Amino acid sequence: MEWIINNGIVVTPFEIHRDFSVVIENGTIIDLGRASEIKHKYPRYEKIDASRKIILPGLINTHTHAAMTLMRSVADDMELMDWLTKKIWPIEDHLTADDVYHGTLMALVEMIKTGTTAFNDMYFFMDKVAEAVKESGIRGILSRGLIEIPSKEAGEEKLKEGLDFALRYNNYADGRVTTMLGPHAPYTCSPEYLKKIKDIAIEKNLPIHIHLAETKSEKENIEKTYNLKLGEKGVIEYVNELGLLDAKVVAAHTVWLTDKDIKLIAEKQVGVAHNAVSNMKLGSGIAPIPELLTAGALVSIGTDGPASNNTLDMFREMRIVALLHKVNKLNPTVLPATEVLKMATVNGAKALGLDNVGEIKVGYKADLILVDLNRASLTPAHNPISLLVYSADGYSVDTMFVDGNLIMENGKIQTLDEAKIRERGQKQAEDLLERAGVSV
């Protein structure tokens, strides 16, 4: 369908244009300019009035475990390793394909309602995640989590499964699903396993999605688990010596970095997925994002899973990212709103290898959202970018397009039955906890 979105405030996100129109044809932005000059040029196109609305690129969440909606509020106020070993992994031992499918659908409803048009997901039963993404109409960059637990043999089987998924589902759902390989972390994957994954990733031209340098104890855990002595090396330097960073890598967290680690991330153009809220909630620390940006690193924003955030709302995440680093540096000029919005859009697209996504430009794919300014917290609209980062939340989002398709209009999702998904998701989550024998 062909669309013209009229009379809006367009945030590209580098510039602000008031009373602009955006024209969409065959999934692509074909025209952009002053409403007075454009809106009468396309009389047969479907019209959307964007008066008192901001038109901006859809937000891109570069690190999630979407189906963990099923575990939201189950394991709060815990340290990471206790959180994993005492709550999350025992529950995940009982996960079924149906659990992951319905948990992912719940996540997709939340992401659509809060303005996320693409997300980078690592989990299990990824064919079911891909199926849910296809139904939703948004973009998913998907990888099967790879982990050598309980044995190396199990790790090899998971790698076979992960590679098969990645090759079969790349460019699935009219290209809205793309794939990666997903080694969990260097404390759950041996050096040999990481080298093998890297070799396959380079051979098959697949990116890698991995957790790196998340906690202060991670380096010690690697040394103990694999009988290594890393000396002064940081975790990034360690995996670089294994050759991992020779592949295209999206690294979640990167909290505990040495100066050399920061330089390597920038030199190797590792896509950093900054998960501020999850890192805060789990007490993991504060990633050196200003230092990474100064070094020239590609930094984007992720929420992490709904069990450790506990939402998938990228607007909330943007606000916390901006505020956290200002107070950490005692400097209100650190990470201005424009930089943070760029991290959530342009940088996310680059990190995930999404071509012609993340900006509002002629020739780019029409992955757009509209934010309704008719709210007390968004009035007056002096500086739209500041409003988006500091005042809005995800439920300010009114309308969404992905690939030029209308995914949500006036707050109502067009592709999924929100009420049925919530009802089934609640039941699925309760059944999962009962099967796992885990209490809240």
Walk me through this protein's architecture.
- The protein is α/β, with parallel strands linked by helices and 440 residues long.
- It has 2 domains: 112 residues, Roll (Urease, subunit C, domain 1), CATH 2.30.40.10; 293 residues, TIM Barrel (Alpha-Beta Barrel).
- The chain contains 16 helices and 18 strands.
- The strands form 3 sheets. Strands 1, 2, 3, 4, 5, 15, 16, 17 and 18 form a 9-stranded mixed β-sheet that branches. Strands 6, 7, 8, 9 and 10 form a 5-stranded parallel β-sheet that branches. Strands 11-12-13-14 form a 4-stranded parallel β-sheet.
- β16 and β17 form a beta hairpin.
- α5 packs parallel to α6 and α13 crosses α15.
- It is globular.
Keywords:
single chain; alpha/beta; Urease, subunit C, domain 1; TIM Barrel; 2 domains; 9-stranded mixed β-sheet; 5-stranded parallel β-sheet; globular
Short description:
This protein has 440 residues and is α/β, with parallel strands linked by helices. It contains 16 helices and 18 strands. The mean pLDDT is 97.
How many beta-strand runs? Answer: 18
Taking all Cα atoms into account, the compactness measure Rg is: 21 Å
* CATH C-level label of the largest domain: Alpha Beta
General form: globular
Portion of residues within helices: 25-40%
Strand portion = 15-25%
N- to C-terminal separation?
Answer: 47 Å
What is the tally of helical segments?
A: 16
Tell me the number of structural domains.
2
Low-confidence stretches: none
What would CATH call the architecture of the largest domain? Alpha-Beta Barrel
Q: In CATH terms, what is the fold-level topology of the largest domain?
A: TIM Barrel
